[in-house]
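Supplementary Note 3. Input sequence used for the single-chain structure prediction.
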Amino acid sequence: MAAAEAAVVSSSSLETDTALVPETAGTAAATAAASPATAAVAAVAAAARTGSEARVSKAALATKLLSLSGVFAVHKPKGPTSAELLNRLKEKLLAEAGMPSPEWTKRKKQTLKIGHGGTLDSAARGVLVVGIGRGTKMLTSMLSGSKRYIAIGELGKATDTLDSTGKVTEEKPYDKITQEDIEGILQKFTGNIMQVPPLYSALKKDGQRLSTLMKRGEVVEAKPARPVTVYSLSLQKFQPPFFTLVTAKDPDNMEIMDVECGGGFYIRSLVSDIGKELSSCANVLELTRTKQGPFTLEEHALPEDRWTIDDIAQSLEHCSSLLPAELALKKSKPEESNEQVLSCEYITLSETKGEDDVIKTS
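The predicted structure, written as discrete structure tokens, is reproduced below.
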């Protein structure tokens, strides 16, 4: 602003001098030259004002971002991992708030905490619950809640990852399998059952994910079977070799629900086990999480074009009414000062039953 003010002063002096001297050919030329100079000075001043207003706006957005606290849901598409998607969300919020910026680097440091609960595989899509601020402390409770899925399985092929992204490890005939055969075995996979988790998973061995060890080519032993819960499961469609698993249709409005299960349950293992039970093999072709806890894909999951500070603030307000009273967060107090900088940290929580027994829902 000092440079702009100096230019304005200089321009004012020039205009005064030309008004006091009778116009001649020389002074006319000088006056003509002064007009572009005046316009340039005005443009500099306007730009300075705009820049100042932008800084004030960014500071307000940064303060609002810091004050966000609670849980909400986003729509995860196929492709990115849950961690990659969370990082993309973080970067969008930081960019909108103009953080980090040189003006803030010497000011008080404040951490923005953001994390997700209930990992979705990269090949899966659907509801991903996100915690921000003090909401990150609620994610463990969210992980243990029920989840619903629509899963499309493919008979006749087994893969190392138990889904379509892996290498085919086995092929078996499926032409004799009927719809009645599948419906007849689903009861065995409903209720409290024992399930062996996939080798490609977030479960850990010696502090490292099994999936990471597998990708390195290391020999990994399967984790022992453990108890999981499937609340509802049925066959919606069978068009060999593909079959779609959902919950029972609502008898009143024929609404199609999806597989509903508790925490720590792997759809990939379910589909693989169904294939084995049918004396064949199977893998997951498509997987969509339609609900996690109280958050549904259609009503609550924010698409990427709505990952803005204002939209998330509105979603937090709406979603707070969906949570149990013991989990609901009180509104955060406004920050006392704008003199804060965001030092970002994102936290990916997993359901834990033991020190090295991290449960992931996929």
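The first strand starts at residue 70 and ends at 76. Helices lie at 2-20, 25-67, 82-96, 139-143, 179-185, 210-215, 267-277, 309-320.
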